[in-house]
Amino acid sequence: MHDESLLLPSDTQPELPDDKPVVLIVDDTPDNLALLSDTLQASGYAVLVALDGQSALQRLARITPDAVLLDALMPGMDGFETCRQIKADPRNRHLPVIFMTALTDSEHVVQGFRVGGIDYVTKPVKPSEVSARIAAHVQRSRQQRQADMVLEIGMRAALIAAASGEIRWQSDLARQRLARYGSGDAQTEERNGSAESNVKDNLVDDGARLPAPLAEAGPRLPPVLSQWLARWIETGCDLQAAFETAADGARRVARVLGRATRGDWVILLEEFNDAAHTSALGAQFNLTAREAEVLLWVSRGKTNRDIGDILGMAPRTVNKHLEHVFGKLHVETRAAAAAIAAKASTRY
């Protein structure tokens, strides 16, 4: 076999390319594995192999391939039981399992479908037929996964983008919000885990601003988001990471929800109207404009020094406003004030 890493212990996580579909081949005959592996690699697939059903399940506990090519008759756990256990995991509901069998008895073919198989090929396998069947099922499975994800996302401002910044799909609301990420003069905050920093949004110069409408620029993320996504991936894909930009009284937050398919990411675009939020807090609790602004940022976990930097006032002035806020809310602690503010209204 060309790639010795394919036979690493089943508890080893191999490095797999994002730009190639991955096929797991399960067969107890090494010669069959070698033939099929060479054929699929030549057709542009990345290949993983397992010599038995248990090893296949261990592989699948660590990575989800795009298709499984599964020998029906193997010693120990046969292919039918292996497939049954594969399909018992909800993560594999769209994973195409293609049986390989020398059996032509319809009873065995039916059994393969009953346990969750989607297709079968007869041995001795024809390499060109195997490649064609896998290609069709991989494409169909990816489309189904993306369609399900789109339905789950619903009417939210969400999109699916590749690591390169190419947009695979976007909702109408996401398309509208993306057009507001082209400006280079907004204050930007990037969060990665617990690290926070406030910097000027100088990642995009005037010449790189996103034209309107978005369609004129082609289906790509605005440069500022594309650069952020690339850095996020490079630093280990911390699912708590978010990109924030503030302008015109609104905060815009881009957040990665997770993978759509290998190499593609689901991004949620949220907008928060700080001006409306501040106004509502002031009206509800009889606060001055400054007191409402202080309460808003307290509810977001900012310290007095942070709030002073944001609002352009000394920390001791922030503390005086906060004392007035405590009195009007009838509380004694920052945590209590923050809880009341969050309960009153979390999004505008």
TrEMBL record:
Listed Pfam families: GerE, Response_reg
Chain positions covered by the region annotation Disordered: 181-201
Biased composition (Basic and acidic residues): 188-201
Keyword tags: DNA-binding, Kinase, Phosphoprotein, Transcription, Transcription regulation, Transferase, Two-component regulatory system
EC numbers: 2.7.13.3
HTH luxR-type domain ranges (all copies): 280-345
Alphabetical list of InterPro entries matching this protein: CheY-like_superfamily (IPR011006), Sig_transdc_resp-reg_C-effctor (IPR016032), Sig_transdc_resp-reg_receiver (IPR001789), Tscrpt_reg_LuxR_C (IPR000792), WalR-like (IPR039420), WH-like_DNA-bd_sf (IPR036388)
Entry's Gene Ontology molecular function annotations: protein histidine kinase activity
Annotated positions of the 4-aspartylphosphate modification: 71
Primary enzyme class: transferase
Domain Response regulatory: 22-138
Protein's UniProt name: Sensor histidine kinase RcsC
Organism: Paraburkholderia aspalathi
Gene that this polypeptide is encoded by: rcsC_13
